[in-house]
Amino acid sequence: MENQPPAVPPLPSTPPLIPHTPPLSPLPAPRKRRSGTIWKVLGVLGLIVVLLGVAGFKMIVRFADAVSGSARLDERALEEVVVENNHSKNKIAVVDVQGIITDQMDQFTGMGMVRFIKDQFKLIEDDPAVKAVLLKVDSPGGEVLASDDIYRIIANFQKESKKPVIASMGGLAASGGYYVSAPCQWIVANELTITGSIGVIMHGYNYRGLMNKIGVRPEVFKSGKFKDMLSGDKEQEEITAEERAMVQSLIDETFGKFQSVVAEGRKNATKKNSGQGRELAKNWKDYADGRILSGKQAYDLGFVDELVDFDAAVERTLAIADIEDANLVEYRLPMTFASLFRIFGKTEAPKIQVDLGMDHPKIQAGRLYFISSSLLH
To answer: How many CA atoms lie within 13 A of 248 on its CB side?
Structure first.
């Protein structure tokens, strides 16, 4: 026991190796659920964009068709607008005839006056709620053919639809302005309305004297002796009596047509109105020599039936149509891409214009006009 070696103390145990791990990052905060409102708003906006795109595409196609000539506006393109709402089931259609009467294409609407009026009367005829038409005339007249076309539209409309047309003259209803009023069943005017000017005019210039002064002489080659009868570069002695007689015969024939329109229109009106209103004076032709008349003078001669304002004209229309009340409606062309292109797409060279206080009508040489001659000077 004494020879035994001393006991060796046990070695300390090595702690187990623990792998180093980085600290864990904190968990992200839970996402907040987005509200569905924004998606609803975006959806509505997207739907609006799609609808506008479809409408715009249709308008562009319509404009392209109009430009290419493959489509044209018809009466269905007009919009009915209520200008006076009397909460009635009946309607009185108000149709305007304003400015120079012409069939030239309007740059803003893309439609001529005759076509525009024709389409309005077509809608009026097809609408049973429209009981009468109030024709607002404020015009010095215009082209013979355009005036006659409007006259026929009104006369045929009254005959076929049995709906009365009442003419309400504004400040000016002369020459062609009276021509389109003549077929109406009843004609009203203000005492100070300028009307009359019953006649025909062909206007032009002879500038041969100016050409002689600057040393310019025309060279004319023609197929017949009358081919240049309306030329403005002929010497006075070159204008034969035969040529003058031929032009005057044309004027007289057209003037005879004007007189027959007045006589027939007033005769039919007297018959429809059962003796009410005014009959033409026996000497009315003595005043159909191109002179202008006041509303009072026209009333005395039987050219108009009543001297009242527009509001009284509405009341007269209600009485003739035998209705107690009605809404006043108009038919207008809606604004389209085509009209915008016409407004902003037209370019013109700069013009110098002298302001004379009124717009001078564009009278073309060699054309016949029912227009007040006082506007030509």
So the answer is: 6
Question: What class does CATH assign to 73-199+242-348+360-376?
Answer: alpha beta
Q: Is 213 a catalytic residue?
A: no
- Annotated catalytic residue, options 40, 58, 227, 271: 227
pLDDT in tens, 109-139: 678 999 999 999 999 999 999 999 999 999 9
Q: For the segment 27-70, what is each residue's pLDDT rounded down to a tens digit?
A: 555 555 555 677 777 777 777 766 666 555 555 545 444 444 33
147 is catalytic: no
Return the domain boundaries, the chain: 73-199+242-348+360-376
Give the residue from 197, 192, 98 showing the smallest Cα distance to 139: 98
Residue 137 CB contacts under 8 Å (≥ 6 apart), including other chains:
97, 98, 167, 168, 169, 170, 173, 177, 180, 181
Q: What residues are paired with 101 via a beta bridge? A: 142
Q: Catalytic: which of 175, 181, 197, 373?
A: 175
- Concatenating the DSSP letter of every residue in 185-239 gives SEEEE-TT-EEE----EE-----HHHHHHHT-------SSTTTTTT-TTS-GGGS
Could you give the angle at the alpha carbon of 243 between the alpha carbons of 242 and 248, nearest 5°?
100
